């Protein structure tokens, strides 16, 4: 669509009712939106109407920044980061925008003067759960940091109609319920149908000779799908920058086939529409596993092709020659889900824009960079060749050609090493043939990074070893980080205020400034305040648990929390073994002196992951018994909080005393929950895995509860031949725990229910729970001891927070900017032409 220059419109002055920040103005704007957008007046308005009216009021105040940002980026053709991710787990927008705009207090007052409660309205927002866990939430933290650091960036992904399922618990089992986040409308997005693009799928290719006599390939697709962008503004913290999250919905090019309808084929008339729309219908609810599904590959090419075509449109629009694509854009691939970008960018440049192979390849490699997020072999994506050929015939040809050139390079560097060629090929030919997406990403990118120091080292030594030997210069580490805006300022205002009252608020943008808190660690008054705040937050969670689960919890007990996706490698069941150990001690000696604990769990299991679901059932079954056993006398409580989400996480992190980060060493790439808990003053019990290693280095070993085998010890034990039964037979407490479960004590006498889990532990124990059991129990006993010395615990908590500066996502983004992206910040001034009248 053409844009129409219009000088009258350019001189438009926006009315201050849409930008003014006084309480009076906010109230007027709120009522105006209620009336004109929601079409309601207070007497008949629902809570959702009020939420929407407020959301529009806030969005109006964002738009000036958003438009200015776009104007300046366009005028200067600024170098831009494209962050390609199949997942963005944004969390609710309203509260975050209030914080970043710096108008939280005014808005709170304005709505309260209208007889409404801001917290209540914030609660109303359905969060866009467009991600599974760590990888999706990391993408969201990075968007926040890029905007805050004034880095021009675009997040590109899929606007799933149904995000991650809602979790209910029935009879202790997880039940999945469709997430209808768009049900009440989404006030934060603006559809941009004028920038729609088309994506081809299926069909076949044909060779032809063009008018210059060159060999060319034409792709005749079986199906074409339309992608329509929906834009959401991403505001930086107290800056004028508002970047864009651009999510694609799939539509049929023609939503209705009149030909079919007229010939009486009523179903056929809408069929194409249904088939196309399926592409952005639902998020795959898998975390750390890859399933070879045609629809998933179709989703990947869909959003990648839409995004790359959009970037090419922007390049042309800004009069940048296509040969300089890599100077305008750097494209970060968030894991391998967008790795098809390697072949798609080549295809666009060669087939659609007439570029030669060598130049296209040079641009592709210079533009793309790849982040790996997992060491689990089952999560490394590969696609059966037959599926790939039927959906992406042209891409397969391109991949074969890339592979040919690549293997020639390998041969030149490692002559005579045919086994290396087999291992490194983009095509796995050991049985059924597959395309290896991680290999494609490595070959097509100029940078390959892991997400914590240990993870990067293990990639180099193990998973991507051959690639490290081939291209050592491409490898680098970028330890993850989290945004302190959402995970402190918004979610923990009490601690935020206490900290700022002592050291000012510079830490919100420069997290290292938290270091200044160390000066107060011996100040009894400060320590007292610190403790009272934690206690008040715990009281709030107690009330929430009472309401949600009907369980009464002792607020003075240790709040011992494990909140994350359910997976065997994360070992929620090791935590369960500890709970039963304490329970057995009480049963053996009801008067035993035990430090009271509340064990809190939250997290979802992939719907098809039976063992993870059985672990959820086990925890709920333990809760039923332990919470109701009179011998326990409230010393232990077990709580499973259902439907873990970003909103929920914000409530839980601030209340934790102890953060459980107990994965088997060598499996958790980084973890980011570990950072959020510690930032909120929890102490960590953890293995030397992922970013735990770096957190311990920062906060000091004396302020961290470390236990268990290290990654090299794990490999060595497995190489020697691990026999879990030996541990079972030689450890009295461990045996009693396993026997207690096996006896049906937690399953109303049913000895079969948990048998699959017990069999897996006794005979395989892939994640070495038995090997780490004693070390974990000893460490937990130490935790209980230390907690009794409340002054010591408080001191440790303060030191943890004071030393978390490294783990801001701002630091991660600065590292990406310097080492990979080569990009500078572009400060935004609120320009004249659309400056609001004050
Ligand atoms: C996660 C890692 O498991 C976690 O350690 C890390 O902190 C996080 O990524 C961010 O880097 N990985 C995934 O979420 C993941 O691999 N998900 C894909 C299967 C969807």
Q: CATH homologous superfamily of the largest domain - what is it?
A: Glycogen Phosphorylase B
Structural class per helix/strand content? alpha/beta
Catalogue the ligands.
N-[(cyclopropylamino)(oxo)acetyl]-beta-D-glucopyranosylamine
Name the shape in a single word. globular
Termini separation (Å)?
Answer: 34 Å
Tally of alpha and pi helices: 34
Share in helix: 40-55%
Radius of gyration (Å):
28 Å
Mean pLDDT: 95
Biggest beta-sheet profile: 10 strands, mixed
| CATH level 1 name of the largest domain | Alpha Beta
Known CATH architecture of the largest domain:
3-Layer(aba) Sandwich
* Residue share in β-strands: 5-15%
Q: Report the uncertain regions.
A: 832-838
Number of strands: 25
> Number of domains in the coordinates?
3
Keywords: Carbohydrate metabolism, Glycogen metabolism, Glycosyltransferase, Pyridoxal phosphate, Transferase
Enzyme class: transferase
GO molecular function: glycogen phosphorylase activity; pyridoxal phosphate binding
Catalytic activity: [(1->4)-alpha-D-glucosyl](n) + phosphate = [(1->4)-alpha-D-glucosyl](n-1) + alpha-D-glucose 1-phosphate
Description:
The chain has 838 residues and is an alpha/beta fold. It has 3 domains: 1-78 and 93-126 and 823-838, no CATH class; 80-90 and 129-446, Glycogen Phosphorylase B (Rossmann fold, 3-Layer(aba) Sandwich); 484-818, Rossmann fold, CATH 3.40.50.2000. Helix content is 48%, strand content 14%. The chain contains 34 helices and 25 strands. Strands 1, 4, 7, 8, 11, 12, 13, 14, 18 and 19 form a 10-stranded mixed β-sheet that branches. A hairpin with a 2-residue loop joins strand 5 (166-170) and strand 6 (173-177). Helix 12 packs across helix 15 (393-413) and helix 23 (572-588) crosses helix 30 (732-742). The longest helix has 30 residues, at 47-76. It is globular. Mean pLDDT is 95; it is low at 832-838. Residues 132-135, 138, 286-288, 335, 373-374, 379, 451, 480, 668-672, 690 line the site of N-[(cyclopropylamino)(oxo)acetyl]-beta-D-glucopyranosylamine (8GP). Its cofactor is pyridoxal 5'-phosphate. One of its GO terms (biological process) is glycogen catabolic process.
């Amino acid at each position: 669509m053409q844009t129409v220059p219009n000088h009258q419109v350019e001189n438009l002055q926006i009315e201050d009712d849409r930008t003014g920040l006084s309480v009076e103005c906010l109230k007027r704007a709120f009522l105006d939106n209620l009336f004109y957008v929601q079409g309601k007046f207070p007497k008949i308005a629902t809570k959702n109407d009020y939420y929407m009216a407020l959301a529009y009021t806030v969005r109006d105040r964002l738009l000036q920044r958003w438009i200015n940002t776009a104007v300046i980026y366009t005028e200067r053709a600024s170098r831009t980061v494209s962050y390609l991710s199949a997942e963005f787990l944004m969390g609710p927008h309203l509260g975050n925008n209030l914080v970043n705009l710096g108008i939280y207090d005014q808005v709170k007052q304005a709505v309260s003067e209208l007889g409404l409660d801001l917290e209540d309205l914030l609660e109303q927002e359905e969060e866009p759960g467009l991600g599974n866990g760590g990888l999706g939430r990391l993408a969201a933290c990075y968007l926040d940091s890029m905007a805050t650091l004034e880095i021009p960036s675009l997040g590109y992904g899929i606007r799933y109609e149904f995000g991650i399922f809602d979790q209910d618990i029935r009879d202790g089992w997880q039940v999945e319920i469709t997430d209808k986040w768009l049900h009440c409308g989404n006030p934060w997005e603006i559809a941009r149908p004028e920038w729609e693009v088309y994506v081809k799928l299926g069909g076949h290719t044909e060779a032809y000779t063009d008018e210059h006599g060159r060999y060319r390939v034409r792709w005749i697709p079986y199906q074409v799908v339309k992608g329509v962008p929906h834009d959401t503004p991403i505001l930086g913290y107290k800056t004028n920058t508002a970047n864009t999250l651009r999510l694609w919905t799939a539509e049929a090019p023609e939503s209705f086939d009149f030909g079919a309808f007229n010939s009486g084929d009523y179903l056929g008339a809408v069929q194409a529409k249904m088939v196309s729309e399926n592409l952005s219908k639902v998020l795959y609810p898998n975390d750390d596993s890859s399933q070879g599904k045609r629809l998933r590959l179709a989703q990947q090419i869909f959003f990648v092709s839409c995004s790359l075509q959009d970037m090419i449109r922007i390049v042309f629009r800004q009069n940048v020659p296509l040969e300089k694509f890599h100077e305008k854009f750097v494209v970060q691939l968030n894991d391998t889900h967008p790795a098809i970008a390697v072949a798609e960018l080549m295809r666009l440049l060669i087939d659609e824009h007439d570029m030669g192979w060598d130049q296209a390849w040079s641009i592709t490699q210079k533009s793309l960079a790849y982040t790996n997020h997992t060491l689990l072999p089952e999560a490394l994506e590969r696609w059966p060749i037959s599926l790939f050929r039927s959906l992406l015939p042209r891409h397969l040809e391109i991949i074969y050609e890339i592979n040919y050139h690549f293997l020639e390079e390998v041969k030149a560097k490692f002559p005579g090493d045919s086994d290396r060629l087999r291992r490194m090929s983009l095509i796995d030919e050991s049985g059924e043939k597959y395309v290896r997406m991680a290999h494609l990403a490595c070959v097509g990118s100029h940078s390959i990074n892991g997400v914590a120091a240990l993870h990067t080292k293990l990639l180099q030594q193990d998973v991507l070893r051959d690639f490290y030997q081939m291209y050592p210069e491409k490898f680098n580490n970028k330890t993850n980080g989290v945004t302190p805006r959402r995970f402190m300022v918004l979610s923990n205002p009490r601690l935020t205020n206490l900290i700022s009252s002592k050291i000012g608020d510079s830490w919100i943008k420069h997290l290292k400034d938290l270091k200044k808190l160390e000066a107060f660690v011996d100040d009894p008054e400060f320590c007292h305040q610190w403790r009272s705040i934690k206690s008040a937050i715990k009281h709030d969670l107690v009330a929430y648990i009472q309401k949600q689960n009907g369980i009464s919890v002792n607020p003075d007990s240790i709040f011992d929390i494990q909140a994350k996706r359910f997976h065997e490698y994360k070992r929620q069941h090791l935590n369960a073994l500890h709970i039963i150990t304490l329970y057995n001690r009480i049963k053996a000696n009801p008067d035993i002196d035990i430090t009271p604990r509340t064990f809190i769990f939250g997290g979802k299991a992939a719907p098809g992951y039976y063992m993870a679901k059985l672990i959820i059932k086990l925890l709920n079954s333990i809760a039923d018994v332990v919470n109701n056993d009179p011998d326990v006398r409230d010393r232990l409580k077990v709580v499973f909080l259902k439907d873990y989400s970003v909103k929920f996480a914000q409530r839980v992190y601030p209340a934790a005393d102890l953060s459980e980060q107990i994965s088997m060493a060598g499996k958790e790439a980084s973890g980011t929950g570990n950072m959020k808990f510690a930032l909120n003053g929890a102490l960590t019990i953890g293995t030397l895995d992922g970013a735990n290693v770096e957190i311990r280095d920062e906060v000091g070993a004396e302020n961290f509860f470390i236990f268990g085998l290290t990654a090299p010890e794990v490999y060595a034990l497995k190489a020697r031949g691990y026999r879990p039964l030996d541990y079972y037979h030689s450890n009295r407490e461990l045996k009693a725990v396993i026997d207690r479960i096996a006896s049906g004590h937690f399953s109303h006498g049913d000895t079969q229910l948990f048998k699959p889990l017990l069999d897996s532990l006794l005979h395989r124990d892939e994640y070495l729970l038995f090997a780490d059991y004693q070390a974990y129990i000893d460490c937990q006993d130490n935790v209980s001891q230390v907690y009794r010395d409340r002054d010591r615990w408080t001191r440790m908590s303060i030191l943890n927070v004071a030393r978390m500066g490294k783990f801001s996502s701002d630091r991660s983004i600065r590292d990406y900017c310097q080492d990979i992206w080569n990009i500078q910040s572009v400060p935004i001034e609120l320009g004249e032409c659309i400056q609001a009248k004050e």
